[in-house]
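note to self — DONT lose this again. spent like an hour looking for the file last time. sequence + predicted structure for the chain T wanted, 368 res
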Amino acid sequence: MEEIEGVDCCSKSESRSSSGTRPPNPNPPSHRQCKLVRHASLIKTNLSDVSEPGDVTEDYQSDFFPTLRSGACADIGFRSSMEDVYVCVDNFMHDYGLKNCTEGPSAFYGVFDGHGGKHAADFACQHLPKFILDDEDFPGDIERIVASAFLQTDNAFAEACSLDGALASGTTALATLVIGRLLVVANAGDCRAVLCRRGKAIEMSRDHKPSCNKERKRIEASGGYVYDGYLNGQLNVARALGDWHMEGMKSKDGGPLTSEPELMSTKLTSEDEFLIIGCDGIWDVFRSQNAVDFARRRLQEHNDPTLCSKDLVDEALKRKSGDNLSAVVICFQQQPPPNLVAPRSRVHRSFSAEGLKELQSFLDSLGN
């Protein structure tokens, strides 16, 4: 992990207050019922158009700092209850009582997709940012701090469940931090973050499904198994917070279900336009590049990340996504995404041997 530019950490005693603020959770709309229908875009999108996280290139524009604007939308979709939670904090340090210790912005965004109830999602949304800020090294050593905060949140929830069994539930978690020019994404589960870099989708997270090769190997090495795509035949994600009540999934010594996140980071450049983070209900009906193309067109029309997130959710409903829906759109520029004009290819013209012969005959006839 490279060092964060412009970081000058201040002491915790001087910089933290005892209170913090948090945006309210969205109110779920009315209940709907429908079957999942796979949208045609899932077939038409060419997966080769989407860059892998490893394709994120190094940037040399040290004078660029993002200007953050964000918006979010959530909908119960066609489920009987709402188990998604999101958080958007464009001024992370200020809103949580920490004096600004970095040059440029500091922000925190998260999406938490609960299962078996909403308690774990609510708990993670409330406690994960605090564990990050409470680390003495923050905002330095950010990857270690964020990974540690995931584990601390999970262990704290285990203690809460031991005192109140009614809290038993689980949640996937995806957290995004912007510190100066550094973008860090931590993911445990099947939420997804996709960066738009000059119109191209760059996946900043990997879906943790039990059937994925890497996850299957880790699960089997931890004493678990994958049956019909489900972890131990019970859970369709390979990483999550909570689920301490599910037998054979977790223990203090480890287990096939882990809350350890995968982290990916990049330095933001002037070519980075926006980031989409969303629960799997969004990605059930959107490919990554398809979502970027859709959001980019909307931002070009109205340049409003809140409206754009609502556009994504509404479109997912039209495409008959069968899950709760949550989307967060974070813009890194004040201006809307520019129109991209593809360079015109040079036309190479050539004559065949037969054509040259005919031309020579024609020229010879003119000389006679």
